[in-house]
Amino acid sequence: MSKTAASESQFERMEKIVSLAKRRGFIFQSSEIYGGIGGFWDYGPLGAELKRNLRETWWRAMTRDRDDVVGLDATIILHPAVWKASGHVDTFADMMRECTITNKRVRADHVDQQSGSVIRYTGAKAPNGWSNDRQITVLMKQGEHIESFRKRVRLLLTQNAGVAAGKPEEIELVGEERIKVVECSVDFHPETGGLLNEARPFNLMLKTYIGPTATEEDIAYLRPETAQAIFAQFKNVCDSSRVKVPFGIGQIGKAFRNEVTPKNFTFRSREFEQMELEFFIKPDEAVQLIHGSVAVWSEAADLSTPQPNWGWEMWHRYWVTERTAYYARIGLGSEVLDYIWQTKADLAHYARACVDILFKFPFGTEELEGIAARGSFDLTQHQTHSGKQLEYFDEELKTACDKLTNEEKSSFIAAAFEKRFNPATTLEETALFCEKLFKGLYIPHVIEPSAGLDRLALAILSAAFEEELVTDDKGKSETRTVLHFHPRIAPIKVGIFPLLKNKPELVSKAREIVALLRPHMAVFYDETGAIGRRYRRQDEAGTPFGVTIDFETLGEEKPEFKDTVTLRERDSMQQRRIGVTELLPFLLGKIL
Ligand code: GAP
Description:
Helix content is 33%, strand content 28%. The chain is of the alpha+beta class. The strands form 9 sheets. Strands 1, 4, 16, 17, 18, 19, 20 and 23 form an 8-stranded mixed sheet that branches. It has a 5-stranded mixed sheet with strand order 27-26-28-29-30, with helices on both faces. A hairpin with a 5-residue loop joins strand 24 and strand 25 (477-483). Helix 2 crosses helix 14 (453-464), helix 8 (284-291) packs across helix 11 and helix 12 packs across helix 13 (427-438). The two termini are 33 Å apart.
């Protein structure tokens, strides 16, 4: 979901970020030497480190630092039945329209408005015998000259027909007719100007074949999200780990979507990484039976520590707060984030709530992460389609229910029916669900915080990028390009610089410091060029600290400074002396 459009200067900013990302080895176009491949991106040396650090911060915050979340690392290709059960085979589609001349596709909601004259030809032919007998309808854009327009149409025809049509200039366009003038029309392809056909659903899953025969039966899909593998392995995780609802399973991994219009650099890619948590909670009815009431959310609710009597809404709000705190810890504060709470009408039929956390990208305020309360939909679907029991046995619930009288059970069923989430649920279905609860059985509900790693890397780059005018001691001004990464996620934590490369004592001391720090963090040793230029190079890479080893370090000029170095902070550009023995604790305090 998007909130605002970008201004022109923001487009320029975006272009600068894309250019820096390539120049400094953060992000490259995949297969660039062959002209690239749309929607696929590679991460260079600095980008790979950045992504790794982001992955690590998510994994730590969401699994290792918590008692109630475990991890999973599942395959990219799953049994195709998983995608049937999840609904992806039937409904994971974008509405799409096709150019009637080139067959180029565009998402129906991504067609820009265009104005001009609609020109129709009854056909086209070439001296080599090639002909096109279908009508050709193209928009001649406002201000476009008729001759250059015709040239463009000939080119479009050859783009589609290839060599068979011969040279574009030899094509004869037949029966030209100006049909009408249109304003702000969305019926023509934004690039080709060709008339678009009706919108049709286009499934976004990428297909492959398993095994050597490549028949329809061998079709499999590259996963379009990591989440489904978590649901498919729910029972194994429960059986093999000492987890108890409420608990979560987190996973980071590749996902693939055949996006119709990949765009905005890495923002909408065809191959990307997701960081997803499926957090399983008790249905509110189970909470009610165990605790006698369900804590529901209000503005005054304390979300700091999960409580046993929380219902789904408290858990949902809790995860929105947790994720917001996570972003703040890596440098994305409230000034760059926004939220969209989906209305009841926007929600999927099974979902109870969904909030998108948005980031203010230079090209607009767009989704970074979605946090959905998905009810018991996913596990129920997999239970139905696989025929395997995915119900969870809750000892605490069973113990609580064993104390209930038959009258209490009946009135509980009646109350549950009154409060049912889905009005279509019958009394019989409610009774069946409650009878299961009385035995301690239910299908857990799910809260799903689902983030994109590549989007996060792009958000981090966008938030960190700054061009600032700096003036040196001699009054000379220059533009400093700097990436203000939080030290926790910066690809390189510290640059180590001997003041002069031809002084062996300085070099060997600098190498000693590299050896001291390297086991704990990514360091970069640089001995070439003036010290100011070395600082600037690291500013562009987003390295938060620089350490210079100079003659004072050796104690040659001022013995009291022996074994101290100059520590420069990237953001303030302030320099101060620090003892070599203090370096490691200082830096660890900043990056952990
Ligand atoms: N399991 C829920 C799910 O997949 P989603 O909103 O489709 O939900 C979650 O995707 C996150 O994955 C998004 O918020 C976004 O960060 C990332 N994402 C989705 N499609 C993407 C794409 N084509 N390119 C890059 N990131 C994408």
